Amino acid sequence: MATADWNPLGDVYFKKNELYAMGWSDMIDLDKFTVAAAPYGGPIALYRDDSKTARVQVSTKPIITVFTAAGNQISQMRWSSGQVVKMGWSNTEDLLCVQDDGMVLSYDMFLNFKRMFGMGQEAKDVKVLDCEIFNSFQGTGIAVLTSTYRIFIINSVDDPRIRRLAEVPGLQSAPSSWAVLNLDRQSRALVAKGNELFLIDHGGQYQNQTPQTNTEVKEYIKMALSFNNKFLALYTDSGVILICSSDLQKVYCEFNTKTEACPHQLMWCGIGAVVAMWGTLMVVVGPQKDWIRYNFESPAHLVQEMDGTRIISNYQHEFLHKVPEVTEHIFKIGSMEPGAMLYEASREFHKGSQKADEYIRMIKDKLEVAVNQCIKAAGFEIETDKQKALLRAATFGKCFLTDYSPETFVNMCQMLRVINQVRHHKIGIPITYTQLEHLSMAVMIDRLVLRKMFHLAIKLCQYLKIPDQEGASRILAHWACYKVKQKNEDDETIARAVAQKLGDTPGVSYCDIASQALECGRTDLAIRLLDFEPRAAQQVPLLMKMSKDQLALSKAIESGDTDLVYTVLLKLKNDMKDGDFFMAIRNMPIAYSLFIQYCRHQNPQMMEDLYYQEDNFVEEANCKVVKSFDDERLEDRCETLKQAMNCYARAKNEFAVKQTDDQIKLLKYQRRMEEEFNRPYMDLSLHQTIYRLIVENSHKPAEQLRKEFKVPERRYWWLRMHALGEAGEWAELERFSKSKKPPVGLEAFVEVCSKHKNVAEAMKYIARVQQDQKVKCLLKIGQKKSAAEAAFENHSEEELNLVLQKCGAADKQLVENIRAMKQQLGGRR
Amino acid sequence: MSAPSTHFPNVQKIRDVVRNELATLLLSFKGKKDLVLESDLMKPLDRIAGASLLKQHGVDKIFKLDPSQKSIQGCDQRIYLVRPRMRTMKLIADHISGEKNHGTERKYKIIMVPRKLHVCEMILEHEGVFGDVTLDELPLDLIPLDRDILSLELSEFFKTFYLENDHVWLHTVSKSLIGLQALIGMIPNIYCIGRGSKMVYDLMNSILGEKLAGTDYSRNEIGNLILIDRDVDYVTPLCSQLTYEGLLDEAFGINSGYVEFGLDVTGKEQSVKLMLSSEDEIFEEVRNRHFSHVFSYLSNKAKSLQSDFDKRHTLKSVGDMKNYVANELKNLKNQKAVLAHHIGACEVILGKKTKGDFQEILQAEHSMLEGSGLKDNINYIEELINKQHNITQTLRLLCLLSMTQDGIPSKEFKSLKTQFLHSYGYEHMLTCYNLKRLGILTDQEPQALPLNKVTAGVQAAIGKRGSYKSLCKRLALVNTHEATNKYTIGICNIEKGI
């Protein structure tokens, strides 16, 4: 019978399931230990407590042991620090041990020390009386009560910022009970002082909040908050359990237990009931003053979960929870709910009975509801047989539905598969469907990784078809990080193992693994691992951190990202001697040219030095030439140029030597002439200098320059012609043209004249021009008519066409003339 | 390429992304702030965000970063928008320390385009102002100039990469292509020609890294990406431009798709900024035409516009009239204005071309491309040098000669160079040296100069390249005059695509 183990509590039922037979049976007597178990089926830490075995004086140090929820030992260590006031687990499953001096030590579940922080100077000075580890909106928080009855609180162990809560007025002795309340994104403490309750916050405010009760209360000696912080249970000195809302505005129930002994544990079972534990006796109290009583063979420890309470004892691990509504619908005797009918139908069907059909007919219209109920109920079942039966019922019902989306069914199957896997006693995470939904699958996978169950985690990801990026490869990376911490294996083996397993899985950062290795002090391993990292931008900074600068440099160069190269380069330059630095980069062309580039802007002298060291005389000389332009004084400038000349000479670049020499010469000439004529010549080219000299009618020095620099005949003619043209020395020009046979042709003279629009002068030269050039020259000065005539004289149709091309709209008459000429020429032929 | 096609990917998305980014960066300073822009970023920024967007986000005054200016006035918050160059950083550092010494309190931010460089941070640190500024980056890389042209507008790429062997911009190129693919889908086929292209490709892969594995090509809007190094073909840019667009660039300078016409074109005092893109119908028609055909098209267009205008006389009903005024008139007026500008520009170009030795230069170019008349060409260049013709054009011809002849015969090379230096000044010795290193202007003498490893690499790259002469023969690049032009245009456009 499905309802056999249901215990009624008012109009609902409670049910207790066995999760595990504890792996520690016969070895552990819980009575002798302080127990701290993490919620969501997390690990259990046992602390061998001196005070409990005080009959014999123990001189050995206490021992902390961590077990899985199934009672299998994970790790153990001897506690060598101070007095532990409280142990608890953070939401990332780190064990937090709070000492009486306010120091909080955190360990992972393998009891590897992670970090340590204090709860403030005052806590350290006056000692901690009591401590509370709670779930805050920022993670896991810690509150300590000092012996001066002040409460200090941190909201997150990852970011321990200590706040002091307001003081309760007139508090002379330790509060009879207190708890941390999390509402509206703020952590406050509820402190009981006699029959008064105070809500204090870190803003220095306090509120006196006393619930309206029928019974007389002297003291509140125990309090418990529900998982969602909405409800509060108070236990009074007279043995009354008060169930009220956490703001104390409403009192739902007052239940007299008729015992004055304070329960060892008081907590909520989901949000439907309060559980109180006295040694081996447990009472479940409902809001309607209904109650159930359980007796245990040995003392048990309660763990509050969001949907129930786990009971850990010497031999067993049980889960007490309210029977969910949907389960009740299906299994309650005489239930006529569609789900119940479907379940029955399925059973009959599998028995081969025709009754199945009858049941299905009865719920024909509500079949979808029935299927959904069965699926949902399967999620709440702990035993796999029942899960199967319910799912089977659901599939059976599904057959009669035409367009039922299988999504919920498939999802449920997947979830249950995962839940059943992790609940296996070897893994030991007894999580329920509700909890897993709240925790999310990603966190579940993380928790497996935390337990170093990499294989299962990967299988899980693959089963759930989680993309490799966020699933398998992430897990592999964690595995690798764990792997590099194994000190007993040598670098080579580990590097190979990691590379083999990870390959080039997308989303794996070898860099992270390498930095992990570096943290463990395994530099060589880190370098090996970094070799696998495809992204240079990640490699380089780490290599630099390891001061493998040379390697970093070559990696940066490989990456092709110049910025990265610069980063390394400039660090190298700072760290090394110049000489060594130059030697280091000379074989890396990219780095080398980048550095040159840097020097060009930042340190030209260093660039020169570099070239010098490289025996690259041409570049060195070029640097000097560039530098010479910055020299203000002529003497300096010439000196620099002379140095450049020497360099060119060393480079056997005769051409450059000659040119530089000429440059110096020219500069000196220019200076001399500036002094002589009081006109600026500096920085003009040779051509321009001579030109200016001729225009300014200083023919003698011009002639001198011509000889000195061996200006070719043709060039000089051009130069002189144009200069004379510009100076308007037409007579001189004519004389020049007649001085000897012009090497440039008389057309050039025409050109000069036309440039300065002197048609009359041009005509003089045209007369002397060769017959075949005449037309072109005439055209140049715009004498189209004459050009046409000349062309006609030449009997050249081609030339006539040329003239024709130049004719525009205005030359109508001329065009006709030319046409006539052409005809004439044609006719003559 | 500007050929009409049915579908283009929506590259304007790039603009929106960068615009949002810029807005966020601007808002990081609350309230009024001044913006100091580097001059070569002004036009690109114009393409992304207009003045109104800047004003909306609290920009008060906009300054141009002027290297000669030692300090800038303005309000107490200032944002520099600059390229990550060392000398710019120094300049900014000078501003800041100068103003600090004067006791002016200001908040500074430097936004580097397209990305922050460590070396810039180092320089700011070196100059002692690192603590006074916040640094940010604006990924303004590819700018959509037209529906089918994206440009990085990075004119210094050539110099830094080919001459100085500085790979800093390769990263930008790769990053921009990755960004493009992120927006419009991965490009399935990538082809590379040249050393730099290969590096860009490798860099792209290494940045994308692992993401590449499960690449989804289904969304792609671009089927092929062809990366070509500039140094594969120096001949083309050395030739004179013959298309309308090319000549516009030569005469007025096209910058980020804008051309600015001055007094000589518009006949007005104020210069006019015209955006050149396929949205301008008239320009779209003539941009790739040989210049000689442009004028006739424009005059035809003018006539047809006139006839459209004249339609107003034939309008019968009031409704037609209304329709005409509402729809056509505005469009016609716009077209008229644009047409006037194009005609004006044409005239200016025509004036320049007929006055100079354009025809002769073209002839020289053509004979160089054909590989004939070496002696004449040398003489012609000599004459240009002697006449102190425009230095750029002379140098261009000189380089073209060297490229087409695979180096100029040693004796002539020396004499030409000497004359060149005499004519234009000795400072051009370095110009010649740089050109020689790039392999653009060389002599035929076998390389006997002692070269260090850096230049050796460059030389090796040059050595590998097929010589122009043999390529020309094998690929039949130059057949007729017509073919030359086509060749030129084709390559130009591909290059722009990159």
TrEMBL record, chain A:
Family matches, as Pfam families: Vps16_C (PF04840), Vps16_N (PF04841)
Example GO biological process term? intracellular protein transport
Compartments, record wording? Late endosome membrane; Lysosome membrane
- Give the matching Gene3D superfamilies: Vps16, C-terminal region
Q: What is its main location?
A: membrane
Give an example GO molecular function: actin binding
**UniProt GO cellular component terms:** CORVET complex; HOPS complex; late endosome membrane; lysosomal membrane
The record's listing under InterPro entries reads:
VPS16, Vps16_C, Vps16_C_sf, Vps16_N, WD40_repeat_dom_sf
Vps16 N-terminal domain: from which residue to which, for each copy? 3-410
| Spans traversing the lipid bilayer | none
Q: Which UniProt keywords apply?
A: Endosome, Lysosome, Membrane, Protein transport, Transport
What is the protein's membrane topology class?
A: Peripheral membrane protein
Report the domain of life of the source organism: Eukaryota
Q: Where is the Vps16 C-terminal domain?
A: 508-821
Known partners and oligomeric status = Core component of at least two putative endosomal tethering complexes, the homotypic fusion and vacuole protein sorting (HOPS) complex and the class C core vacuole/endosome tethering (CORVET) complex. Their common core is composed of the class C Vps proteins VPS11, VPS16, VPS18 and VPS33A, which in HOPS further associates with VPS39 and VPS41 and in CORVET with VPS8 and TGFBRAP1. Interacts with RAB5C. Interacts with STX17, MON1B. Associates with adapter protein complex 3 (AP-3) and clathrin:AP-3 complexes.
Q: What's its job? A: Plays a role in vesicle-mediated protein trafficking to lysosomal compartments including the endocytic membrane transport and autophagic pathways. Believed to act as a core component of the putative HOPS and CORVET endosomal tethering complexes.
Family membership, please give it.
Belongs to the VPS16 family.
What is the protein name stated in its UniProt record? Vacuolar protein sorting-associated protein 16 homolog
Which organism was this protein described from? Mizuhopecten yessoensis
TrEMBL record, chain B:
- InterPro entries membership: Sec-1-like_dom1, Sec1-like, Sec1-like_dom2, Sec1-like_sf, VPS33_dom3b
Name of the protein in its database record: Vacuolar protein sorting-associated protein 33B
Family named by the database record? Belongs to the STXBP/unc-18/SEC1 family.
Name the Pfam families for this protein. Answer: Sec1 (PF00995)
May I ask which residue range the UniProt record assigns to the signal sequence? none
Q: Which species does the entry assign this protein to?
A: Mizuhopecten yessoensis
Q: Which GO terms describe its biological process?
A: vesicle-mediated transport
Q: Which SUPFAM superfamilies match?
A: Sec1/munc18-like (SM) proteins
